[in-house]
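input
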Amino acid sequence: MIAFAGTGRLVRLVVRRDRMRLSLWLVLLGVIIVSSAASLPPVYPDQADIDNYVELFGDNPALVAFAGPGYGFDDPNLGVILVNETQLWACVGVALMSIFLLTRHTRAEEDVERAEHIRSAPVGRHAPTAAAIVVVASANLALAVVCAAGFIALGYQVAGSLALAGSFVAVGWVFTGVTAVSAQLASSARGTLGLAAAVLGASFVLRAVGDIGDNALRWLSPIGWAQSVRAFAEEAWWALAACLVASIALLLVATWLTTHRDLGSGILPQRLGSPVASPGLRRPLGLAMRLQRGAVVGWLAGMFLTGVVYGSIGNDVEQMIEDNPTYADFLAQLEGASITDSFFTTSFTMLALLSGGFAISSALRLRAEEGAGRVEPLLAGSLSRTTWALSHLTITLVGTVLVVAAAGLGVGAAHAVTTGDAAQVPRLAGAALATVPGVLVLSAIAVLLFGWLPRAALATWAALGVAVVVGILGELLRLPDWSRSLSPFHHVPALPAEDVAWLPLALLLALAGAIAAAGLVGFSRRDLRTA
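output
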């Protein structure tokens, strides 16, 4: 037990350092998941509406890929719809929470050399990693408890609610183990995130291919294992046990690997770069592009595929409304607009909210570079603070436009295929681009906080959470108009359901520019921080 000495004290340290970050993850995921559960009873009030849902969604390959295999569709109930609507994305969200939090307190601590200071104290070799695992696993369990309690309070069956919430924590624990192993294999925090994210992406793809083809590939994915619990459809509890066994095995492997590497290094050697920098890397913009290109490419692919899902069901929306008129309230259909265009308006709002995740993370790269101490050497020469910051913000601006455009192209391409009308591609891609100013306002808030209150910059994610609640649940929760106006997307023209209005877009762009400029002023006036 000497190897784990001091774990309890380090657990308290991790909680103390990450109390705000943990709270944000738990509150945002909990609110979104439970709110989604609360939104379903009004939309599907009786068995006929539930049966119509199954008929419309059960055989669509795109929806199977991005929702699930549809366990229980042969005898559907409201809980089955809850699983189909929320389980996959909740599992992905919990997995991302586990990956980011565990990386922060394992590999990232070695990168900034804090781990050496901790290890110089009377703590065991495995204590820092064990403490991080305890905190992350506990956060997963806490989220599952909140979700289960919310489902039961909303009237869902107890057994199904426990099984669904259990699938969340099961996936979270598996990816806690995946990240722990990745932290031993990779030589940096970025490499750890890349390896763990690659496993998550492979799990998603294998599950999707297995579900569409109804074959054994789904059993190669921990997400597929969690979905096999069949919540609200004759629960199979053994699937959760499989996830638990896999997570324990991964943690044992991570512990063994820890004893076979030096602190600060990884099992996999780092690839040597070119001894001479390319011309582009000698300029701030080229360096910023190199640092963020992986994230941009990943978001482009993900948003395009998500857009394909929305576009593939656009042609079925009118039938959905005809079979279930309550669904029209969720779409917030605009006067004089077709049901399909109203659906795409709501879809573009959701896609814009997702794109806000890229815009914020890209803008916060400024904070990450400063905190890691990589900015000081750059600014020691003739490079100014403003020029350095603008190089990263240029990538944020261009990347945001590309990510939103990719989502619009996905919607347009899928809708064009289902309708046979190629003109839908430029029409819907252009409508999606109307949301860019709203997304840029969120990134500008990140710059403002980075410039004046760098330690509070992560609070920008709370702003995105507010926009999510207002944009998706505002109509359902009957929020007052003043609260809805807090979201920048409330002021974006509702394309393609209405004509474009250039003034609100120009004002949003001006607002984003002014907020970002104020942030740059703050950055130029404060001291650099490296912790």
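quick obs: The chain has 24 helices and no strands.
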